[in-house]
Amino acid sequence: MRKTFGRVRSSSSDSQHPATPLLDRYKDISDNGIVVNFTVNGDDIHYDGPDMRLLPFLRNNLRLTGVKDGCSEGACGACTVIIDGKATKSCVVSLSRLEGKHITTIEGLSEREKNVYGFCFAESGAVQCGFCTPGMIMSIKALIDTNPAPTEIDVRKAIHGNICRCTGYKKIIEAALMSARYLRERIPVERKVEIPVVDERYRRVDAEGKALGIGMYTNDLMLPGMAYGKALRSAYPRARIRAIDTNKALRHPDCIAVFTAENVPENILGHIVHDWPVMIPVGGVTAYIGDAIALAVSEKEESLEEILSLVHIDYEVLPAVYTTEDALRPDAPLVHETGNVLDTEHIVRGEADNALARCAHVVHKVFRTPYTEHAFMEPECAVAAPENDGVLVYTSGQSIYDEQREISRMLKLPPEKVHCHSMLVGGGFGGKEDMSVQHHAALCAYLTHRPVKVRLTRQESINVHPKRHPMDIDLTVGCDENGKLVAMKETIIANTGAYASLGGPVLQRACTHAAGPYNYHNIDILGKAIYTNNVPAGAFRGFGVTQSCFAIECAINLLADQVGLDYWQFRMLNAIKPGDELPNGQMTGPDVGIRECLLAVKDAYYKNGRTGIGCAMKNSGLGVGVPDWGRCILSVEKGKIHVRTSAACMGQGVGTVAVQIAGQTVPGLKNSDFVVEPPDTRRTPDSGTSTASRQTLFCGEATRRAAVQLKNALTGKTLKDLEGREFLGEYLGKTDPINSGKPHPVSHIGYSYSAQVVELDEEGKVAKVTAACDVGTVINRQSLTGQIEGGVVMGLGYALTEHFPVKDGVPQVKYGTLGLLRATSVPPMEIITVCGEGKLPLSYGAKGVGELCTIPTAPACQCAYYRRDHEFRTSLPLQHTPY
Ligand code: FES
Ligand code: FES
Predict the structure, then answer these.
(1) Which of 123, 362, 471, 473 is least enclosed by beta carbons within 10 angstroms?
(2) Which pLDDT tens digit goes with each residue over 232-277?
(3) pLDDT above 70 (res 32)
């Protein structure tokens, strides 16, 4: 096939070929344009027009959306294609360099290749959010095409330029080696009928579509008549907006509208605390450089920057605060009129001061943890369109019902007029819980009566969305002469940045988990979350526990030294058992498996003297008295069982979990009996946010309850007999508020536990990580171990390589300088799953794993380096290591 783009020059033989409708995009090209001929997936392309990058040409002009845009700056590899046999990042290649070249995208794979790569990636559990996967496969194909029998090292090198934030690369490497073998040995792909049950091998329902670039993320949507929106961000962290002049911008030929706060029905939003303006109004004061001041809507995406450059803002620059110390000074500028303290938590049990005074051994240390960027592979994007007298919003957030709630508040519309539909989500890790683009897209569509896409550039994403909190932790912990922990006292100061986001709950979790999974009860923990004029901090995998766990796990090693115990012994001596009382007062049930975790890593710890150990516990579910629902509808439609839940899958595979739980409950069903629907406020019931490691337990239990009803209804009948029937399963986790006054409050429905050992090599590089996790029943082993591997690698990055420097409120970092670990630098990992003596009576005994697996890695690294060189490091990333 031949396709022509741009002006057809009369002297060329291309004049035979009429231009396609996409010509409109280039109808006013200048004579300085380029003329170039190349092929894409075997089609001849004649291009005559202004030079441009290959990535937008493939995605927008050829609609080859399997080529993903993760950064547009050559740093992530999501856009990888093959040009004349070489894996190449299409975002950095200009069309002018392509004369005579042959380009292959994921869509251009042969049927056999699609079969093999799709199958092997699904079979190996190599696909989570899937946003990196098509680019990975293209790098791997370029390798296998020239080296049909690659080694693991060959594969690692081949995907060195492809970042995966979810998997930790291990299963991607396995999938690559498996694909090579299938292709080399001409092994036929056999897709057997699969029976979905718990803890049996079962391929993820979404893996192949994501791997082959067929799965649709929000940025892949192109609606008829769609316009594009973009926010103008503040030039200063703290400044009063004296005036906004949009006149020049409105005269731009592509400009449809420029909106300001005046156009917003309700301007103040916020996930929990309403403190975050949709746009800063005239007279208002900005709180950070990510604040939106105006929103431009353009016919063309490429005109947005130019239009925004024509909006004139008159600022009065004001003094700002960036550190918590400065923000707490009596004369500090106020980030919000309510003061600079967002939240205070004080958890007291027993008599910490008196108990510490009686301790045989006491350690006092101050720890500092930094900002961390989620670096999910898919930058934020939303598309909104008018729907009747409301809006339809396509999103990639972590809860469609939270988005519906906040957008309906902003537009002053009843919730039912805000229809939210989730596309695939290219990773979240907590960073997609807040409004980022969804509300702006909805506002633009509502006001212009046009479909509007709003997406963040990678740098905007880095500058705008909330990060992991930096925390300063002042910790005193003591034990008796035998090493039994007795008491701890701690102050946690969290820099929560410009807006509340989830700063309050994050601080709570930091405090409630600060004492670790150990059996002692004199606790005094004071936490404060402080507003500053930095990028906000909010939810991030670990949710505050990553930070407070680092402090306690490092500190108890010093106690162990004083007592004369080794670090494994000290933990085993103090680890909680079933029937013990957690430091927060909650009685533990038979599911507690921290001792089993320790036993599982014992050999790894004692293997040599170059190891370090860390333990962690993490709640499943919101807990602390917050209403916490899981919901799922199983409906029978056209002979299939539709699994309908709003639980967002950011890569963790909750849809597959629901199918396996339904299949476990209703024997005799097979994979082809199920259809997993995407979250949609018209179709799927509210199952809460995908946060707090909660959906496997909460949505899983709701699915089990729905499936019990389906099973009962099926007795003596077939699915055909149940056509049109719906079965709603609901589960409400009831918990007690913090400081409820109860002697043994139920703070959380369940906790998962982990012990990890990091082993260094002779040079001080990480040689291996052994991670034991008590997550109760394993639902899908491939997904679970993949998630743990990804979490461990994220924890290694937190410990060793990741940076998020901020200067005067401005992040000094790009995606390529975040320090994300690459396939060439991740160590071997051994994942061990264990259980306590019993199981939770919910969701077949499954507990959350999403956050747990990241938490103990950093202290285990610190411990290993401390044993190596006796330097006791108190901040992250760890200094004086080979990284
Ligand atoms: S989109 Fe090209 S490298 Fe990230
Ligand atoms: S699966 Fe690789 S980034 Fe999500």
Answers:
(1) 362
(2) 999 999 999 999 999 999 999 999 999 999 999 999 999 899 999 9
(3) no
Among candidate residues 709, 708, 632, 643, the one with its CA nearest the CA of residue 673? 643
Q: Which of 67, 79, 131, 219 to mutate to test the pocket of ligand 1 (most atoms within 8 A of CB)?
A: 79
* pLDDT value at residue 7: 53
In contact, 719 and 639? CB cutoff 8 Å: yes
Strand partners, 771: 756, 831
Q: Which residues contact 374 (CB under 8 A, 6 or more apart)?
A: 165, 427, 428, 429, 430, 431, 465, 467, 468, 540, 541
pLDDT tens per residue across span 773-798: 999 999 999 999 999 999 999 999 99
Distance 59 CA to ligand 2 centre (A): 20
What is the predicted pLDDT for the residue at 590? 94
pLDDT at site 828: 98
Measured CA to CA, the distance from residue 200 to residue 669 in angstroms comes to 14
Beta-strand relationship, 452-455 and 227-233: parallel
The backbone region for 649, taken as left when phi is positive above 0, alpha when psi lies in -120 to 50, beta otherwise, is beta
DSSP β-ladder status, 43-49 and 2-6: parallel
Report the alpha-carbon distance of residue 296 to residue 304 in Å, rounded: 7
Ligand 2 binding pocket includes 652 (Cβ within 6 Å): no
- Cβ neighbours, 10 Å, residue 534: 29
Averaged pLDDT for residues 603-624: 94
Distance CA 413, CA 565 (A): 63
What pLDDT score does 850 carry?
87
Nearest to 641 by CA among 664, 670, 680: 670
pLDDT at 288 over 90: yes
* Rg of the chain (C-alpha set): 27
Nearest-angstrom CA–CA distance, 285 and 282: 8
Gap from CA of 376 to ligand 2 centroid (Å): 8
How many angstroms separate the alpha carbon of residue 77 from the centre of ligand 1? Answer: 5
Cα separation, 475 vs 490, whole angstroms: 4
The ligand 2 atom at the shortest distance from the C-alpha of residue 136 is: 2
CA angle 263, 217, 432 (to 5 degrees): 60
pLDDT digits 0-9 by tens, 815-842: 999 999 999 999 999 999 999 999 999 9
Helix (H, G, I), strand (E, B) or coil at 642: strand
Please identify, by atom number, the ligand 2 atom nearest to the C-alpha of residue 127.
1
Angstrom CA distances, 871 to 83, 255, 856, 874, 875, stand at 49, 59, 19, 9, 12
pLDDT band at 168 (very low <50, low <70, confident <90, very high): very high
The reported pLDDT for the residue numbered 205 is 93
Atom number, ligand 2, closest to the C-alpha of residue 130: 1
- State which amino acid sits at residue 356: L
The residue among 235, 216, 404 whose CA lies nearest residue 320 is: 235
Q: Helix 695-714 and helix 654-665: axis angle, to 10°?
A: 30
Give per-residue pLDDT as tens, 534-555: 999 999 999 999 999 999 999 9
Residue 753 pLDDT: 96
Return the ligand number nearest the Cα of 793: 2
Our answer on whether the CB atom of 308 is closer than 6 Å to any ligand 2 atom is: no
For 537-562, letters b (16+ CB in 10 Å) and e give bbbbbbbbbbbbbbbbbbbbbbbbbe
Helix-, strand-, coil-residue percentages of the chain, each rounded to 5 = 30, 25, 45
